[in-house]
Specification:
This protein has helices at residues 29-38, 45-49, and strands at residues 2-8, 22-26, 54-58. It is of the alpha+beta class and 75 residues long. It has a 3-stranded antiparallel sheet with strand order 2-1-3. The model has no long low-confidence stretch (mean pLDDT 91).
């Protein structure tokens, strides 16, 4: 299985009740997008399947230690 990082290309118009990113385990990008879509918030599942709205990058296991995803929104 591969790891994928999904993020929106830009901030959602309204930030609350919406997912801002996912790290998912899946074989293909299409599978990764489907997994993210199944866990979507108010942005809707179509957002995670639309390459125009979200990125989906395969994560390489090599590299320096560090945070992969910090999804934080302060009000």
């Amino acid at each position: 299985m591969r790891l994928w990082l999904l993020k929106p290309h830009k901030d959602w118009d309204e930030w609350y009740d919406k997912a801002e990113g996912f790290v998912v385990r899946a074989e293909t990008e299409a599978d990764a997008r489907a997994v993210a879509a199944s866990a979507a918030g108010d942005e809707g599942p179509k957002a995670w399947k639309d390459v125009g709205l979200t990125s989906c990058l395969e994560l390489d296991q090599s590299g320096p230690p560090g945070v992969v995803l910090r999804d934080f929104a302060a009000a």
